[in-house]
């Protein structure tokens, strides 16, 4: 039905968005690639010529690199495990008939709308402060020694803060998926005497698989880039320096742009590997 | 898949669900409560839950001390303008992709999504440098552009999934009746598209409001929005729980309320229509 005229009109309408995004993608990307091959220290002599691949090898061989990858993976996997498992359980619970379902849903969803700097600060001070935090009070109440959460148990603390922020997202998406499940199938299985765990494993979980995949992929993309939560709580100390945070420190704190850019290229490659999987799934949905 | 259950079972479910809901909400509730306490009550041991002297003192002090109004205004301007600008650019694009699809439409959509996955930290310095060169560092205009660009793929996708649901037959019928393209846009498409556009604006306003990488790294004083306002409370000197709570409450309250209205759009927007 589309005529030639409407085709070209359509192209014209798409042009601003496409051109802007193309520029937004290519200009910084090319600059990052360029810098990554230069010796570039803005505060110590500026651009000092070609570096070959030395920034790339230096970034990977620095003692901070592997720990940062490890930290990144632990945070991402930890948060994913917590949010997906609890997300499924809460979604199944909220799908049951309960009084005040709407209100409970609003309570559960709330943390997603709290800006990351606020949630990090609130958790850091009002809950995890070793002297006046609520956890410290609770620990003392039970006669235990209060824990300095963000220095002695820094990773579990960060994982817990980030999980609190992302649990609503996982729950909401899984709940949407649960609600689309055909209840007749479940009732039939129940009649045939299938125990709860079997009904969950063979009917509910397969039905949720697509939603779970989406949750995992989208969260991974955001979790790889978490910044404010670490910036505000530990500033990358106590073993919480992720790959993004390491790059941030190289570029802005030590002002070594060449080295940081090489790190940036690694981060881009890592994110792209994950992105490819997400694209496949979303792409399938388009047909 | 909701089914009917016995009242006893329902009571049990309700109790557990409310307990979990309150537990998840508790940090926010606690922050709001603490914001109305005096500093001494805020750190009292054992903690006081409700039986304290409610006061608005903290709000007054925070307003006085840190020019809250300017941060709030920056947040509103940056999140609002970036969202509106994004919609102005995205509506025609999404419209043409939904109603005049070509072979490449799907590829273009996926490519747009892929720009969202570029890790911000990987391109921080180039953007920083460009901002200095163009005099955009610490300016609202610069942040509006950056936030518009990072949210543009989501805006296009959301609008696209909404527009796709508008039946093409209606357009054809309008055309048969002799409607021009302009009439078609104004009288047929716009009324049907407004709910979708409104949801898109809402969700992206929230995302832009809470964005905390670019807003922290590209601002200093003039253009700093609420994310930076709160981050300034992270220094250990002069930290007081009640004032921190008041500041936090002021930063999140507007968006929390907007957020509750946009739960459904959240699923759709952030999964790019893959979960409905």
Give structural notes.
The complex is a heterodimer of chains A (287) and B (276). Chain A is built from 13 helices and two strands, in the order αββαααααααααααα. Chain A is mainly alpha-helical. Chain A has a domain at 82-206: MetI-like (MetI-like fold, Orthogonal Bundle), CATH 1.10.3720.10. Chain A has a two-stranded antiparallel ribbon with strand order 1-2. The longest helix of chain A is centred in the first third of the chain and has 33 residues, at 4-36. Chain A is globular, with a radius of gyration of 24 Å. Chain A starts with a helix and ends with a helix. Chain B has helices at 7-34, 39-42, 57-66, 68-99, 105-115, 124-133, 140-164, 168-176, 181-210, 214-217, 226-231, 241-261, 263-270. By secondary structure, chain B is an all-alpha fold. In chain B, helix 4 runs parallel beside helix 7. At the A-B interface, helix 1, helix 3, helix 4, helix 5 and helix 6 of A face helix 1, helix 4, helix 5, helix 6 and helix 7 of B.
Hey, roughly how much beta strand do the residues of chain B contain?
under 5%
Number of helical regions of chain B:
13
Question: What does the largest sheet of chain B look like?
Answer: none
Low-pLDDT runs of chain A: none
Kindly report how far apart the N and C termini of chain A lie: 19 Å
First-residue to last-residue Cα separation of chain B:
15 Å
- Order of H and E elements of chain A: HEEHHHHHHHHHHHH
> What's the CATH class label of the largest domain in chain B?
Mainly Alpha
**Main β sheet profile of chain A:** 2 strands, antiparallel
């Amino acid at each position: 039905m589309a005529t030639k005229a409407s085709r070209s009109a359509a192209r014209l309408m798409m042009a601003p968005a496409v051109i802007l995004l193309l520029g937004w993608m290519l200009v910084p990307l090319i600059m990052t690639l360029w810098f990554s091959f230069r010796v570039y220290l803005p505060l110590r002599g500026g651009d000092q010529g070609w570096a070959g691949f030395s920034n790339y090898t230096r970034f990977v061989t620095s003692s901070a690199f592997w720990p940062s990858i490890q930290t990144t993976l632990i945070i991402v996997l930890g948060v994913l495990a917590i949010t997906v498992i609890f997300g499924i359980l809460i979604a199944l619970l909220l799908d049951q008939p309960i009084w005040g379902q709407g209100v409970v849903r609003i309570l559960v969803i709330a943390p997603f709308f709290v800006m990351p700097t606020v949630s990090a600060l609130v958790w850091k001070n009002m809950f995890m402060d070793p002297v006046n935090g609520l956890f410290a009070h609770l620990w003392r109440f039970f006669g235990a020694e209060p824990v300095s959460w963000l220095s002695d148990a820094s990773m579990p603390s960060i994982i817990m803060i980030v999980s609190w922020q992302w649990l609503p997202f996982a729950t909401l998406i899984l709940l949407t998926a649960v609600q689309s499940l055909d209840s007749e199938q479940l009732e039939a299985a129940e009649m045939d005497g299938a125990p709860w765990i079997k009904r969950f494993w063979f009917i509910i979980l397969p039905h949720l698989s697509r939603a779970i995949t989406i949750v995992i992929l989208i969260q991974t993309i955001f979790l790889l880039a978490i910044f404010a939560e670490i910036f505000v709580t530990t500033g990358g100390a106590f073993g919480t320096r992720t790959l993004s945070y390491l790059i941030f420190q190289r570029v802005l704190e030590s002002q070594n742009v060449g080295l940081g850019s090489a790190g940036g290229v690694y981060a881009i490659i890592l994110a792209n590997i994950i992105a490819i999987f997400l694209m496949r799934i979303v792409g399938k949905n388009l047909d | 898949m909701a089914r009917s259950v016995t009242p006893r079972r329902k009571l049990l479910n309700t109790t557990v669900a409310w307990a979990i809901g309150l537990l998840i909400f508790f940090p926010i509730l606690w922050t709001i409560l603490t914001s109305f306490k005096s500093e001494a009550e805020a750190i009292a041991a054992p903690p006081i839950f409700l039986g304290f002297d409610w006061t608005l003192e903290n709000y007054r002090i925070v307003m006085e001390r840190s020019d809250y109004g300017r941060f709030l205004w920056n947040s509103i301007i940056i999140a609002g303008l970036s969202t509106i600008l994004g919609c102005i650019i995205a509506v025609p694009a999404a419209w043409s992709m939904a109603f005049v699809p070509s072979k490449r439409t799907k590829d273009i959509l996926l490519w747009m999504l892929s720009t969202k996955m570029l890790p911000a930290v990987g391109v921080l310095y180039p953007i920083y440098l460009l901002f200095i060169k163009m005099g955009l560092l610490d300016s609202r205009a610069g942040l509006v552009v950056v936030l518009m660009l990072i949210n543009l793929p989501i805006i296009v996708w959301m609008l696209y999934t909404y527009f796709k649901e508008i039946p093409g037959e209606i357009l054809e019928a309008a055309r048969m009746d002799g409607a021009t393209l302009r009439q078609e846009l104004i009288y047929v498409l716009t009324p049907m598209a407004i709910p979708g556009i409104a949801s898109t604006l809402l969700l992206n306003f929230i995302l832009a409001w809470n964005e905390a990488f670019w807003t922290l790294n590209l601002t200093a004083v003039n253009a700093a929005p609420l994310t930076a306002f709160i981050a300034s409370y992270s220094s250990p000197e002069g930290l007081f729980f009640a004032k921190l709570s008041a500041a936090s409450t002021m930063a999140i309250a507007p968006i929390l309320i907007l957020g509750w209205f946009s739960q459904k759009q959240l699923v759709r927007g952030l999964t790019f229509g893959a979960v409905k």
